[in-house]
User: What shape does this take?
Amino acid sequence: MSSKTDSPPSYEDALKDPKCNNYPFLTQHGAPLPPPPSYSPSPGMCPGPGFPPPAMPIPTLSAGLSASSPGSQAILNSAGEMDDFFSNQWESTSIRHAFIRKVYLILTVQLAFTFAVVGVFTFVDPVKMFVTQYPAIYWVSFAVFFLVYCILICCKEPRRRFPLNLVLLGIFTVALSYMAGTVSSYYETKAVIIAMGITGVVCIAVTVFCFQTKVDFTSCGGFLCIAAVLLMIIGIVTSIVLSFQYVPWLHMLYAAIGAVVYTLFLVYNTQLLIGNRELAISPEEYIYGALSLYVDIVHIFLFILQVSGVATE
Assistant: This one.
């Protein structure tokens, strides 16, 4: 064992040691420190000899969070939820579009049959004479129309059960078509053609308006119910007055009010069909959607027919 104590020299002795001159990075006591190297964020900055160049950071979704950190897991979970949300939105939109196409396909078949019947009852004289000679068939068709209409509106099971729903809708269409044809047979051919043209223009305009507007008419159901009740009361009063004395302007006024009210109903039911408003029809209710639009359009035609019939007299 050596008795000599190996203690380090003091700072002043170390500075005086000539060996320290071999190390250029050591400065003299009291001398000013060299200025720090300038920082340049350019990609070509070299860190110096003996050191590897800095690796460029790879951007990740977690933006600085590790894959196992709670923050990154929350972001990944939210991203998955957003994917599910957009997937569900796309699926619901595609289902709604398929539902709209089905409703308008059924409605097109109904209207084609109805206006074909109206054309036969208008242009074929033997059929027109048969209708006027046997008015009891009209009331039978009205009873069938009312009964099937109540079943389809009030009972969900027959309305959704295939093929019973299509059978009931077919019976309803035949009954209402006969009624429309019977009413058309009492008017001139010119008035019927005018009513058909105006009805077509109104339906196209309403459909385009409903698909473009941001105004929500589905929240006006109470107003439409009041309008329907008022129209029924006006119709009863008008029928009583016209039964005693025919007043052309009163008949035309009632028919014009009826056409306006059912046009509002058409707007309401079309927006229910579209489904991007406060209220909407379920995609399973394609029979109800076609039925509501069909009834509105036929009533618009009948009211406009009365207006044009009175105007051409």
In short: The chain is about 70% helix and 0% strand.
